[in-house]
Amino acid sequence: MTAFDRLIAYQRDTAALAQIAGRLGWDQETMMPRGAAAQRGVEMAAIEAVLHARRSAPEVGEWLADARAPDEVGAAHLREIRRAYDRATKVPGDLARRLAQVTSEAQGIWAAARAGEDVAAFLPVLEDVVALKREEGAALAAGGDVYDAMLQDYEPGASAEQIGAMFDAMRPRLVALRSAILAKPAPKGLSGQFDEAVQMQLAVTLAQAFGYDMARGRLDKAVHPFSSGSGADVRITTRTSPTDPFNCIYSTIHEVGHAAYEQAIRPDFALSALGQGVSMGVHESQSRIYENQIGRSRAFTGWLFGRMKDAFGALGPEDAEAFHAAVNRVHKGYIRTEADEVQYNLHIMLRFDLERALMSGDLQVRDLETAWNDRFAADFGYVVDTPSNGLLQDVHWSVGLFGYFPTYALGNVYAGCLHEAMRAALPDLDARLAEGDTSTATAWLRDHVQQFGGLYEPRQLIEKASGAVPSEEPLLRYLETKFTALYDL
């Protein structure tokens, strides 16, 4: 075997172990007994120690030095393995293990604090997480910018300066659009009670309508919807509310976008460095275009209106047009995952600035709730009413995902680019969506984005798929056009 062959075989086993670790995380969010949290932290730490040792093993460095890529795919394998190796060798194994244990325990503490509206119960463990992440970031940065180093885990090639400039360009137009919309009468929302078991049945129908392969996946309930796994085992979760079935419906479609990406990656990439989505920004582009540009389109909501009437009876809105307005209603709210398209990125900008300040040391954990509430009031014009609607609403910081939040906005930007290109390529798309047929849209995304897994760098992939350098302009044009029509601005 050549050095390249040995490296690929070794990487396959490492990837398989990483999938097992991911399954432990899925179980913790869905089925694990609450009393098992401390033991699960030890288990996660143990498997993280094994993974870190494999990723940083000296022989990996030796094979990388000797390996010669046979083709473009081989070169991409080496690029991604080298990136993981460079990262692993910078982070001490003991630190990786401590992070795995503390974040596993912190996740359970966060969930209990959120349920009890008790910020004080969460802050001590968050202080531990932040301290460990600062230590990890400093090791990764090797004298450079700590936050930029963290970004590379989620969006290779991105920088805080680049993202900040993009946010600065987006914010004024989003705020102006929101102000114009909120000056108009709000459309009628849904009314009534919606059986949660029926919601889950509809969620399965929608998952399959968007191409999710249930033979290689499953749908469960969790506090925070997520997608987990790759290849032949890709699982999703959603949540239900008896008064808000849209929460279930659009959380499901969103997570199907993530899962469909993983299920569509070339089978020969399975359990390899290329066998998962190339970045969280690209991943989010798939979930957001499924959820918004497809799932909230006038054509698709016309079909969905009929399915929901069949499932629940009277909904409040009396026709498909009123239902479309309800689906896309811009309204005041606190929760990022429930935010409309116009305001969603403003939630991300808040988190981006706060976590950069936390990682730099300019903001201390003890002051985080006040900083969050002050920033929210300034950005949205009203006051956070409960911690679960504020600092405690997201799981990300409890599990150490610093640098992750801005990829949600990048995903929206990438989705805007892909949507323009897809619409140009599929002039009859609305006719298909009006029948509940998403197959032409999902096939275009599969062919132009999903099948490639980690083959291309993130921005390179979006440019190849859309035919243009990624920019926030397509997203802003889409939002301004759509909501100008909806609200008669």
Characterization of this structure:
There is one protein chain. The protein is mostly helical and 489 residues long. The protein folds into two domains: 3-144, no CATH class; 160-487, Neurolysin, domain 3 (Orthogonal Bundle). 64% of the residues lie in helices and 3% in strands. The chain contains 20 helices and three strands. It has helices spanning 3-30, 37-55, 58-66, 72-90, 93-116, 119-141, 146-151, 160-182, 196-209, 245-264, 280-294, 298-312, 320-327, 341-360, 368-380, 406-425, 429-433, 439-448, 458-466, 473-487; strands at residues 219-221, 227-230, 233-238. A three-stranded mixed beta sheet has the order 1-3-2. A hairpin with a 2-residue loop joins strand 2 and strand 3. The longest helix is centred in the first third of the chain and has 28 residues, at 3-30. The radius of gyration is 22 Å and the shape is globular. The model has no long low-confidence stretch (mean pLDDT 96). Its cofactor is Zn(2+). InterPro entries: Peptidase_M32_Taq. Zn(2+) binds at residues 254, 258, 284. Pfam families: Peptidase_M32 (PF02074). It catalyses: Release of a C-terminal amino acid with broad specificity, except for -Pro.
